[in-house]
Write a structure and sequence with these properties.
It is built from 6 helices and 9 strands. The protein has 259 residues and is of the alpha+beta class. It has a single domain, classed as Roll (Urate Oxidase). Strands 1, 2, 3, 4, 5, 6, 7, 8 and 9 form a 9-stranded antiparallel β-sheet that branches. The termini are far apart.
């Protein structure tokens, strides 16, 4: 049969990224407690396309992924990216893997067990000129209490749920659990999936006694990341979904790579 996508193109326009987007796929990721954790990811895979090529081989992306389906690791990502370039005849390759990651947490007073889910992404890229670039992104829900509201009010203070998004590059492996712990320790209070009355009293009072602006949360997370020699680059965004405003409060900090 005629292979239309393999025909030449005469518009003389290269494409930076072409491939598949939003593929749902079962994966296994490293779990600090359990060893491996099964989850379902959304995966996007791209390569560059020279100006003279009409199209890429879309089915080959899924075939390549299927060869490495057992687990996601830094080694397997590097191999996937290199295979994408070789099999598809490309100069650069990219992969984006987004998945829910579950951590069991005990409530602070009664020890009630529950699972918290954290949205994580692993972004990989290879352009053939340097080592594979890997970025880990972790989104962590938190609680914040407004210091200003607490200071000016005769009683109470407004509080809200927020989200901190941490992206990191690193020298050696880093656990998702470590990022989550770092962020949760920087908020007014962390969030739990199961709370009994004693637990609810504890987290309410803990947050009230530890008020944080969105700026405070972003800075406290950044400070800890700066102190970690394993981290070569990071970005931190903190967003509070304000309870007394029709908008969010937001702060962003980025540390440039040492390379």
């Amino acid at each position: 049969m005629i292979d239309i996508q393999n025909q030449p193109d005469y518009r003389n326009i290269p494409i930076d990224k072409v491939g598949i987007k939003g593929l749902k796929y079962p994966i296994k990721v490293l779990d600090k407690t359990m060893g491996l954790q099964s989850t379902v990811a959304q995966i996007s895979m791209y390569v560059d396309l020279p100006h003279h090529c009409k199209g890429t081989h879309m089915s080959r992306f899924v075939e390549i992924l299927h060869l490495f389906r057992t687990k996601v690791s830094l080694e397997s990502l590097t191999n996937i990216l290199e295979d994408m370039k070789e099999i598809l005849g490309a100069q650069s390759s990219h992969i984006e893997i987004t998945f829910p990651y579950f951590i069991e947490k005990n409530s602070p007073e009664t020890g009630s067990k529950g699972l918290m889910d954290y949205t994580c992404s692993i972004l990989g890229a290879s352009n053939g000129k340097k080592n594979t670039d890997i970025v880990l992104k972790v989104a962590v829900p938190v609680t914040s209490v407004c210091p200003c509201s607490k200071e000016i009010s005769e009683y109470g203070a407004h509080n809200q749920r927020g989200e901190v998004l941490v992206s990191t590059r690193f020298k050696k492996f880093i656990w998702i659990e470590e990022i989550v712990k770092l962020v949760e320790s920087s908020a007014s209070c962390d969030i739990f999936s199961v709370l009994k009355r004693e637990d609810e009293k504890f987290v309410t009072e803990k947050a009230y006694n530890n008020p944080k602006f969105v700026e405070d949360i972003a800075r406290d997370v950044a400070k800890q990341l700066m102190e970690d020699d394993n981290i070569t680059w990071f970005s931190v965004s903190a967003e509070n979904f304000e309870s007394i405003h029709n908008h969010s409060a937001y702060a962003y900090i980025e540390k440039r790579s040492i390379y």
